[in-house]
Amino acid sequence: MFSKACEYGLKASIYIASNSYDGKRVSLKEIAKKIDSPVAFTAKILQDLVRHKIISSVKGAYGGFEIAKKDISSIKLSQIVNAIDGDSIYNGCGLGLHVCDENHPCPVHDQFKTIRNQLKDMLENTNLEQLALDIKSGVSFLKL
Amino acid sequence: MFSKACEYGLKASIYIASNSYDGKRVSLKEIAKKIDSPVAFTAKILQDLVRHKIISSVKGAYGGFEIAKKDISSIKLSQIVNAIDGDSIYNGCGLGLHVCDENHPCPVHDQFKTIRNQLKDMLENTNLEQLALDIKSGVSFLKL
DNA sequence: GTTATTTCGGATAAAAATATCCTATTTATA
DNA sequence: TATAAATAGGATATTTTTATCCGAAATAAC
């Protein structure tokens, strides 16, 4: 559904959020370990999220990644997916047609519209706080 | 959402179905032209669908691809997607966890479950006949 | 039978996604 | 100020996906 890069980006964001919630900044190394992702590749993705101002970074000793506490609940999954994979998952045509709308629909246009809209709604209505709290309480997991 | 290969496979199957409906067998070249796909790559995908017994092929002059008329309405999109991309789109974890179930859910497990189930239902309940008829009547399109 | 047409299948190429490596820069602490 | 720790970013490597090429096999028509 999503690219590997996007999966890592989502997991990393959730992990950072769950720590920022406690005022803890986390390092690249720690993140990669906790979400079970390749370190250097994860670095690229985090840089991308920083550039998109979804997370913030602090260089140097005792540096790392964090999310301002007040922002955790307002960051939606859609922002992360959009920054990494773009919006084609829920805005593009299911069969890859360049033009596909009500006037010139692909064969599965109607069938996909429902699903794509639901996916979009879900991503736009799920924020990092909800997910981070479940991680903190041990209800959900970021690896294995 | 789907791989290019899968998109081509779906479009090709729909095109073949719409012609088989009229008893017309179609060639690789014609298919690739009508669905706007690379010829040789499409050949590989069609071979794959033949091996999976979703479509059938006839070698030699006046040969081509076809679907037995009686089968058109019983072939589901899920069979085509499954043959080409596997079932990870609607059975795999949204964040790529190897293990992800009710007992050990990823952070977005519940949110994704709904969508993946809907996608699965849609693919399992949409058959080639419905889609082929829309193509024949000019209600939907396979390219542009 | 010969020929033209067409799918089949193996080998190869090109492009994109994933992953690694190394150096530069920044920053806290000793 | 020197050192260690950490992100930033460029270059490169590997793997997967997408795409092309070519000869073999099959088949209908002549």
TrEMBL record, chains A, B:
Domain of life assignment: Bacteria
GO molecular function, one term: DNA-binding transcription factor activity
SUPFAM superfamilies linked to this entry: Winged helix' DNA-binding domain
UniProt-listed InterPro entries: Tscrpt_reg_Rrf2, WH-like_DNA-bd_sf, WH_DNA-bd_sf
Single GO cellular component term: cytosol
A Pfam family: Rrf2
Protein name: BadM/Rrf2 family transcriptional regulator
Organism field: Gelidibacter algens
